[in-house]
Amino acid sequence: MEPKDIKDMKINLNSNPRQVRFFILSFLSIFILSLSFYTVDANENAVILRLGKYYTTTGPGLQFKIPLFDQVYKVRVDYQYKKEFGFRTIQSDKKSQFRTRGFEEESWMLTGDLKIAEVKWVVQYKINDAKKYLFNVKNVENTIIDVSESSMQLMIGDRSFSEVLQTERINIAIEAKDYMQELLNKYGTGVSIQLVQLQGVVPPEPVADSFNEVNRAKQDQETLINEALQEYNKIIYKVEGRAQKMLTEAEGYAVERVNQALGDANLYESILVEYSKYPQITKDRLYIEAMKDVLSNNKNKIIVDKDIENLVPFLEKNNIRVK
Predict the structure, then answer these.
(1) In the chain, where are the structural domains located?
(2) I need a surface site. Which of 164, 251, 307, 318 has the fewest CB within 10 A?
(3) SS3 (DSSP) at 308
């Protein structure tokens, strides 16, 4: 723009005060309107203070406010916040990098059996009430940190070191989450705990080697005990099998002898019945049967009547030796 044009514009403004007032009012109106509207993102809530006092909470979208009277504080309510304890994430990527040194004050905890455990955990939370989050507690972030540490120390202190290290990890996380939520609701922080997750529970680094040596010794002990029990069971089962076999054989032999005795008794009873009917005939039959059994085992003996004559030549002819 040429200096001459600027000079002509000044002359026109000075010569027409209405245009000057219109220009000023238009500028002020546009300025005030620009201050009267604000935008709330999809994951935010806006808290409105009117003359320093809470007025309302607005949701996402284009909203109106009274300039100079209203103050707007935006809070991300649909967002997952995360707090790390005992470590810090340096770089979150496919190969995340962490820093674990220098957090002993928050990660070292005393267990119920008076041992020190190094506990690392993560707390995830959301803001469910923007008004409470902004005005009920002075520093909500520090409050969440303090509540989380106290809750975890309480859960760890109620359990032994082995339980914290192995069997009670899930229960510790669940109970710590419930206890944290109870305290934060009591304080009116407007925060909802979404997750408490134990990342690792290990012995402190200065005693980690000694702890590992003890674990290896216990594992070796358990291995030897298992091998001894295996050999013991092998021998015991073998001996028990033999004993059971002997018992079974003895029972079978007992049954056999009893049955044989019963059979003999029944035989004798039947013979007795016959004997009572025909005593002499029964005696003769028994005698003949007994002699048959006895003499049948002597193959080289021939019993003949003493009155038989000319028996010796017959015997010699058949190669039978005569005594």
Answers:
(1) 3-76, 81-202, 278-317
(2) 307
(3) coil
Q: How far apart are CA 61 and CA 192, in angstroms?
A: 24
**What 3-state class would DSSP assign to 61?**
strand
Nearest in space to 98 (alpha carbons), one of 80, 108, 84: 84
Question: Which tokens sit at 227?
Answer: 């091998």
- Which contacts of 24-32 are long-range, i.e. CB under 8 A and separated by 24 or more positions? 32/67
Alpha carbon distance 165, 86 (integer Å) = 16
CATH topology of domain 81-202: Tetrahydropterin Synthase; Chain A (3.30.479)
Record the tokens describing residue 301, joined without a space: 């003996």
Chain centre distance of CA 57: 44
Read off the pLDDT of residues 201-257 as tens digits, 9 standing for 90 and up.
888 777 767 767 777 788 888 888 998 888 888 888 888 888 888 999 999 999 888
DSSP 148: H
| Residue predicted with more confidence, 321 or 183 | 183
Phi, psi for residue 70 in degrees, rounded to 5: -105, 140
Nearest to 188 by CA among 119, 130, 227: 130
Whole-model pTM: value is: 0.59
- What is the 8-class DSSP label of residue 319? T
